[in-house]
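Notes from the 1:1 (GR / supervisor)

We went over the backlog. Supervisor wanted to see one worked example end to end before approving the batch request, so GR pasted a single chain during the call. The sequence is below; no edits were made to it. Supervisor asked that the structure be written out right there so they could see what the output format looks like.
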Amino acid sequence: MADDSIPFITSLWLPLLATAGASFTVLAAQALNQFRKEHRQRLYAVGYMADVLYKLVQSELILQRHTIGPHIEATKRILAGDHDLLELTLNTDEFDILGAGPLTFMKLPEDHKLLVGYDNIQILQAFDALLYFHADDTNRLALRDFVQGNLKSKMQFLELSEDHQADVLNTYWDYLRSLEHEGERLTAFAFYIIVPMLRTYIGSKRFFLFNTRSISDTLDKVQSLHGQYEDFVPGPEFFQKTRDAGIQGAL
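Structure output shown during the call:
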């Protein structure tokens, strides 16, 4: 009787074990696919951040070198008494700059952002801060309004007293210096905060099985901008100097 029960038990359990094994295989495959999917979403998000970072930094440094920097120097020369440069700038409407607004970018999918945020919320916070710095258009619009009211008409400007002309030019210079500072803040934030954070993230063990080369290459391109535009990139002590300057430093 006992011997007869063995085949019965075997016939009962074998299908159950086979079903359980098949179910486990399916679950394991699903878990692996989910693992791959989520890590690829993480890498897509970080790759997107690196690409946006490169475009923003390159755009800002080109603007600083070819527009804001030269106009700061020109305004200093005009304030120092270069009347020929003043005439040229008024005749060619060179005071009126920065007509185009900030670059715009598509938004990252929320599920991609959440995955990165679960790993390191500071990366998302830093990237959002970078986008905010770039999108803040207050000073650019104020400069353009100021130019429209004070520096668009050569005749109107030259009719002002010398002191009034100097006040207008000093205000224009102040706007340019504010835009220069904003550019320095953005580039310093990119080079000294975001790039190291992204390198550390993609270099972590969680991505050991995944190819992160393209992201590393993009971050290298960002870093190469530092050398190409070194005269317009502040040093690592930028934020400390900013914090200690002015009233805050005095207090």
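Supervisor's comment: The mean pLDDT is 87.
Batch request approved.
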